[in-house]
Design brief:
heterodimer; A: 473 residues; Amidase signature (AS) enzymes; eleven-stranded mixed β-sheet; 15 helices; 38% helix; B: 120 residues; mainly alpha; Histone, subunit A; 2 strands
């Protein structure tokens, strides 16, 4: 399998003329071709990648520096608009859509010399937890081809673990970065809500959507976050980044309080997952942290809140796909109304239809107060419990998922699939940062350790995760 | 399925979905048809039956929110703490030709988006 140096080292060597951007791009494209069986990639952006690499190599020959990510290849989930590249969100309705502009996140990465080499598979419109909802094909887990990679950023997570690029971008609305990171054995970072601009990214549920990196190490994740984050005039929900920026410097855990989430450490955890998490807890204790048990009684309600708010926002965000302005348009419609319904019938898969209709239902008059408004109020209750928990502990800890990767086709009922997200949705509803890092294996499949910190404490969370990485090594 | 079992343990609820069923959360074929119409979706007959069953399950699951004590709490609409983010209302030239931005439009005529007639 292709090995990559740490991202900062690749950039340093490219800037120093010891490695070329072209060689890095070719290495990535080679690994993508070698791993084709895993179906992690929807399409490469090789022409543009090679052109950009040549420009960067020229720049360096002239004696200029090409940025903090000079020549570093990366893979974007296919819901990021990359200039001139097809952007489908793995949906039939966006098949053939060529991005006329590009997302701020990609702009910022490119400004520092990074090169997008491919677009990764996902559950269509990021609706799902296994990448089986892709309208095109499912992605396979790098550790076992019969298993799912998790989702919805399953292509991104699998690609990183398969060595196709040093990092990939994902989106996390209810766990879509952390869950596949856990199932595939990658680091997956979900920043504080608003820390990374979402301009140019296909919207799912706007009140919880965030963008983040999938990497092999916390160090790499921190560097990518540092480049992407901060206010953007194209996204009015963005917040300022930490003055000190983000880096992978380990935080001294001595004297820090780590709250083990009681509701997550249930007897129903897969035994191997429990053991892996307990090993991490022991490690933290040895590193000087004080371990406390923390209870968030409303945590089990998180998924019910999420599956009201998310479809509501999805139904609104997906109304723009009407077959008139872009995307699939039914050729044989008699009038405008029929053009809408036929285009959407063919263009949307079952899960998109499901969420659009549930969303329409919970937002309809007569049900709005009972469902949507009630969910927003219970969301407040959950947020208050997290605020209280962060008075008792500096960081919260638990598994990312209760189990390891399940088999393709094993979970066919939509509600059961939703329940996979039960430990990840809370951070999205609260808005706080969360990370999944590899914490060993259970029956030879990766287990993810989830750490959370108060909103805007991303710098501390990355430092804490780095320390855990050292402890678990 | 272990995943489902986990939830009910965590919620401290009865072990079956029926225990949290409220009468309003039963979705019929007709309900689904109405929703599909509102959402501008065509559905097949088999989809109608399948969605009716699945929506009933999903809505029964989220019914658990109804019994939560939320005395004195307000709804959360967003979590940034930002209010009224303004920008100057000005034209920014990104250097596009209209034709470039119309490339993805299914039917274009004279640089305008063309749609089917609105009244059949």
């Amino acid at each position: 399998m292709t090995q990559w140096l740490p991202i900062a080292e690749i950039a340093a060597k490219v800037n120093a003329g010891e490695l070329t951007a072209t060689a890095m791009v070719e290495q990535a494209l080679g690994a993508i071709a070698d791993g084709a069986d895993y179906q992690a990639i929807i399409a490469t952006t090789e022409t543009r990648a090679r052109e950009r690499a040549a420009i960067i190599d020229e720049q360096i020959k002239r004696g200029e520096l090409a940025g903090r990510l000079a020549g570093v290849p990366f893979i974007a989930k296919d819901n990021f608009l990359v200039f001139g590249a097809e952007t489908t969100a793995a949906s039939n309705i966006l098949r053939g859509f060529v991005a006329p502009y590009q997302s701020t996140a990609i702009e910022r990465l490119e400004a520092e010399g990074a090169i997008c080499v491919a677009k990764a598979n996902l559950d269509a419109f990021a609706h799902g937890s296994s990448t089986e909802n892709s309208d095109f094909f499912p992605t396979k887990n790098p550790h076992d081809k019969a298993r799912v990679p998790g989702g919805s950023s399953g292509g991104s997570a699998a690609a990183v673990v398969l060595g196709m690029a040093p990092f990939a971008l994902g989106t996390d609305t209810g766990g879509s970065i952390r869950l596949p990171a856990s199932f595939c054995g990658a680091v997956g970072y979900k920043p504080t809500y608003g820390l990374v601009s979402r301009s140019g990214v296909v919207a799912m549920a706007s009140s919880t959507d965030v963008i983040g990196p999938l990497t092999r190490t916390v160090d790499d994740a921190a560097l990518v976050l540092d480049v992407m984050s901060g206010q953007d005039k194209l996204d009015g929900t963005t917040i300022v980044k930490d003055d000190a920026g983000y880096d992978g410097r380990a935080l001294d855990l001595s004297g820090k309080k780590i709250g083990v989430i009681k509701e997550y450490m249930s007897d129903d955890l897969q035994p191997g997952v429990r053991q892996a998490i307990e090993r991490a807890i022991d490690g933290a204790r040895q590193a000087g942290a004080e371990i406390v048990e923390v209870s968030l009684p409303s945590l089990p309600l998180g998924l019910a809140i999420y599956y009201v708010l998310c479809p509501a926002e999805v139904s609104s965000n997906l109304s723009r796909y009407d077959g008139q302005r872009y995307g699939y348009s039914a050729p044989d419609a008699a009038d405008l109304e029929e053009s809408y319904t036929k285009s959407r019938e063919v263009g949307f898969g079952a899960e998109a239809k499901r969420r659009i209709m549930i969303g329409t239902y919970v937002l309809s008059s007569g049900y709005y107060d009972a469902y949507y408004r009630k969910a927003q109020i219970v969301r407040t209750k959950l947020i208050k419990e997290f605020e209280a928990a962060f008075k008792e502990a500096d960081f919260l800890l638990g598994p990312t998922v209760a189990n390891t990767a399940f088999k393709l086709g094993e979970v066919s009922d939509p509600l059961q699939m939703y329940l996979t997200d039960i430990m990840t949705v809370a951070a999205n509803l609260v808005g706080c940062p969360a990370i999944s890092i590899p914490a060993g294996t259970s029956d030879e499949l990766p287990v993810g350790l989830q750490l959370m910190a108060p909103s805007r404490a991303d710098r501390d969370l990355l430092g804490c995760a780095r320390r855990f990485e050292e402890v678990l090594a | 399925m272990a995943i489902v079992k986990l939830h009910f343990m965590m919620a401290g609820k009865a072990p079956t979905l029926d225990a949290i069923l409220l009468p309003m959360a039963k979705m019929t074929r007709e309900d689904v048809l109405k929703l599909a119409k509102l959402a501008r979706l065509n559905l097949t007959d088999s989809e109608l039956d399948e969605f009716a069953r699945e929506f009933t399950d999903i809505l029964q699951y989220v019914e658990q929110l109804q019994t939560v004590d939320v005395e004195g709490l307000d709804p959360t609409n967003q979590v940034t703490g930002l209010t009224n983010v303004m920008r100057p209302d000005e034209v920014i030239d990104y250097g596009y030709e209209p034709a470039e931005l119309l490339k993805n439009v299914p039917t274009v005529q004279d640089n305008q988006l063309k749609v089917k007639r609105m009244i059949a």
